[in-house]
Each structure stands twice: as C-alpha cells, then as structure tokens.
Amino acid sequence: xxxxxxxxxxxxxGVLILVSILVFFLVRLIPGDPIRLLLGEDLSPTVEQQLxxxxxxxAPLYEQYFLWMFNIVQGDFGQSIRTQxxxxxxxxxxxxxxxxxxxxxxxxxxxxxxxxxxxxxYKAKTGWDHIAMFFALIGLCVxxxxxxxxxxxxxxxxxxxxxxxxxxxxxxxxxxxxxxxxLPCLALGIGLAASISRMTRSTMLDVLSQDYIRTARAKGxxxxxxVFGHALKNAMLPTITVIGLQLGFLLGGAVVIEELFxxxxxxxxxxxAISNRDYPLVQSVxxxxxxxxxxxxxxxxxxxxxxxxRIRYE
Length: 314
Prior knowledge:
By secondary structure, the protein is mainly α. It has one domain: MetI-like (MetI-like fold, Orthogonal Bundle), CATH 1.10.3720. Helices cover 76% and strands 0% of the residues.
C-alpha cells in the first residue's frame, strides 16, 4: 500500500506540473492588460513600464514560468497584482467558506442520493422506484445556476426564510452561518444527489441478484442485514468513484454558485482574478483546485481496499 501511495504521489506531481504549464500560458491568452486594468487607460508610458518591470512581465514567458514555479516550491505564491496582498493570505481566508459549502453540498448529496438509490433498487419497478428516478432525472437536467435562482426566488425573496446572499463566519454566528449555507448547498447538492442515486440504484440491482444475497436470505438473515450489511457495502465501489469525482467537480460548480450568492469562497476569488487579469492569483487558485482534485482521487482509490478486502495495492 505504501509503495502504491508513493507511486501515485509521484504521478500527482507530474499532473500538477502539467496543469501549472497549461494555466500559466492559457491565462495569458485572455484579452486585456493587467496593468491597464489596474490603473486605467490614462496610465503614462513611464509608469506602465515601471509596473511591468516590477511584476516581471517584460521577461520571456519561460523565465516568468520558472520563477513562479521556483517560488511555489518554496511556498511563496507571490502577490496579487490587483490587491497587492499576499496570495497565500487571500486563498487562506477563502478556504473555510468553500470547504463549508462543499461539505454541506456533499452531505446533502450522500444523505439523499444513497438512500434514494437503495430504495429504488430494493423496490425496483414499483412506484417508489419510478418516483426516485423521476426526481433524479430532474436533478440531473436542471443546471446549478438555474436551480440557485429558483431557490433564491422562492425561499429568499418570496418567503424570506433565508438570506439571498452573503456569508457569516460560524465562529461568530453559527446559526447565521447555517442560514447562509442552506440555499447554496441545496443548489449544488441536488444535482450531485441525482448522480449518486442513479449509480447506487444500478449497482444495487446488480448485487441484489447475486447468489450470495439469495444465500443470505435463505439462511434467515433479516432484510436490513442483507441489504445494508451485505449488498450495500459490495455495491459501494462504483458509488465511491462517483462521489470522488463529484467532490472534484464540486469545486467547479462552486465557482458559479459562490458568484450568484456573493459567497466569499475560492470560486468567487477565481472569478475576481480572471476579471482583472491577475495572472499570479489565477495561476495559484487553479493550482490549488488541481491539488485538491488529485488528492481526492488518491483517497478514493485507497478507500477501495476498505470496501472490498479483495483489492490489494502491491
């Protein structure tokens, strides 16, 4: 197992280097000059040249890239062109809101998706199955941003149950933080729950038809033990893969949701950085996203050994 983890970590480094190269060069294809966006069109040529030299934008691209990577390896993300703040500090201040949003959305997705998939499989071709899959299909078809607008219209503007936007620290006001979280988490979690429920139903149907399940029932085991103790655990591998992938894609969905709800997470920071052509900030945020995605995939692979003892990483 340790050898497998080391090998995967080495592969992860290669993936992150490739991501860093792509984001470094692609972000410079975006039209617009970060210096002119910072100080306006009336910027004098002398001041413009001084700022270009200050940020190293006059150096060849390959030199800029290697300097940036050299600083990243040392733990220095640099400064934001737009705000002049340390990028590590900017990202650090946005991590908690994004983690809370992602955790809340995934909690909703797992708590709704897995039970719905199990019930749909156990009650296959009945009304319960049709209802569960009908709502799962709707959840898959409805875009996150459109669902978010509907939730804001219904529960914020009309009913007034939840705030329409903003964020409250859980350390200052836990109840207020929860109220600000519910709608964004629902907007993200419902679509994820649909994917998880469909995968859980599919794998459960396959497992419930296996011989060992019929043997367990013939031995007199209760349906609860048979379904949850034997069938569900063996059906979880494909579902875990979906959950792991959704955790990664959750960051992409959070970018749009955070902007809609004015939620101060890393996704909103990325939009701010792209809008202002803040090259160092864009590069650092994308690299953080890629790192999280790679680590999630590694954890998913390791978790396979728990759910299926036959799997050994040699």
